Amino acid sequence: CTANSSSGEPPVDKSLGGLLSSAFDEASCRSRFEAARLWKPSNRTPSPYLLQKLRSYEALHKKCGPNTELYNKSTEQLLSNRIMGPMECNYVVWMPSDGLGNRMISIASAFLYALLNDKVLLLFLSEDMKGLFCEPFPDTTWALPSDFPIKNIRWIWSFDKDPNRFGSMMKKKLLSNRMSIANGSFSLPPYLYLHLIHDNDDYDKMFYCEEAQLLLQHFPWILLRSNQYFVPSLFLVPKFEEELRLLFNERTAVFHLLGRYLFHPSNSVWGYITRYYEAYLANAKERLGMQIRIFGDVDFNSHSSYIIGCALTRKLLPGLDTKGSALPNITGAKPKAVLVTSLSNGYFERLRDMYYEHATVTGEVIGVYQPSHEERQHTEKLNHNMKALAEIYLLSFSDSLVTSPFSTFGYVAQGLGGTRPWMLVKHDKDNLCLQSLTMEPCFHFPPSFECKSRRKMNLGSVVPYLRHCEDFPRGIKLF
Ligand code: GDP
């Protein structure tokens, strides 16, 4: 499916190489059809095997999704409080934690886990997320119905102490015992809860071991709460090795492809995005995205000098002509646009003033823009999250990106955009400005033990395709 071929511009492949199903109508979700026109063309094509897998997943989701007989049958099992093993339809229910970036990287991870296990992914969408995204799978929904029988799903924190928490059951050796009993035809708990948050312990982290993966196949209901991009660990499970190789011919494009497949801003968010893009960015000859996320206290003057210095030394922005007072020629040349995203507006103001008060050595004119400055994170508010999603998307349309270390907000933008960002990384107290080797997100808190022996192990050095993250050395990412 192509567009633009009559305007003389190269045709845009709206289906993203067949990634997106053709079974959707355009009006219900404009971003699905229009985003491809605003992204830089991607050279990461999905493998035929991934396309086939997605189409069969869509069929499975339609067959087992909410409001189907098979869904009702599986939820009846939950109510009966005991199950005897896997059913025809088996589910992963994702539960949110933290900000939107964290949520999006963990949804993508949960989706890959579901895909690898022929399970159906459902999302518990809290009020602050309702209406953010379009449905990704045709003729069904990924939203968990409000009459889902496990009522305390609304009190997400209560799951920390849930008796069916996988990690606590492993710790008490309940699970392996129960499994052997189960094989002797006794029943299993109705669901398992996976606590895959940054603060989980080694018992919870046993989820990433093959032994646990085999065990989890017996459960029709897996509840999963995560704020992590745990995809890299799935690559270490021998059982998934061959499948993952077939699905992703390039390991460094996993989030790029899954993110573009799953996350389509709803029409109302797409309105924010396109209005802003058309008003401020569309006319630029080039776009630089600068994502500034501050964790803890920093000195504004030195931090803003560091960020601007990064863009200048890497030639992402032209230097200032401080000696002369060169005037730009009024030739109608297009400006270069800088899109700043940040909770505060100080960084934007400093950059805007800099290019207002001075000419550039190249004679270029620089437009500096910032869509919002919300001051504080308010993940509990839908409108705040709509702006966050809009800005993540706007950043993803940039030709180059400067991002902040440890920020999942930046990871999603770089992944959707298919861009290797320049990162503001501190190393031995030095402020560095490094270009990331990949566009993949970092798994911040992976397990640190070897599955069989349970001995401490550095996962960044076990296989050539996993390395420590540039911006957070404790984490790992795919290479
Ligand atoms: P992380 O904390 O940087 O890993 O990213 P998250 O997206 O998980 O959480 C940060 C949240 O703070 C975002 O989801 C937004 O709600 C808010 N936020 C942070 N930076 C920005 C920004 O530049 N623009 C907007 N609109 N919101 C932001």
From TrEMBL:
<keyword id="KW-1133">Transmembrane helix</keyword>
<dbReference type="GO" id="GO:0009969">
    <property type="term" value="P:xyloglucan biosynthetic process"/>
</dbReference>
<comment type="function">
    <text>May be involved in cell wall biosynthesis.</text>
</comment>
<keyword id="KW-0812">Transmembrane</keyword>
<keyword id="KW-0808">Transferase</keyword>
<keyword id="KW-0961">Cell wall biogenesis/degradation</keyword>
<dbReference type="GO" id="GO:0042546">
    <property type="term" value="P:cell wall biogenesis"/>
</dbReference>
<feature type="compositionally biased region" description="Polar residues">
    <location>
        <begin position="1"/>
        <end position="8"/>
    </location>
</feature>
<keyword id="KW-0333">Golgi apparatus</keyword>
<keyword id="KW-0472">Membrane</keyword>
<keyword id="KW-0325">Glycoprotein</keyword>
<dbReference type="GO" id="GO:0032580">
    <property type="term" value="C:Golgi cisterna membrane"/>
</dbReference>
<comment type="similarity">
    <text>Belongs to the glycosyltransferase 37 family.</text>
</comment>
<dbReference type="GO" id="GO:0008107">
    <property type="term" value="F:galactoside 2-alpha-L-fucosyltransferase activity"/>
</dbReference>
<keyword id="KW-0328">Glycosyltransferase</keyword>
<dbReference type="GO" id="GO:0071555">
    <property type="term" value="P:cell wall organization"/>
</dbReference>
<protein>
    <recommendedName>
        <fullName>Fucosyltransferase</fullName>
        <ecNumber>2.4.1.-</ecNumber>
    </recommendedName>
</protein>
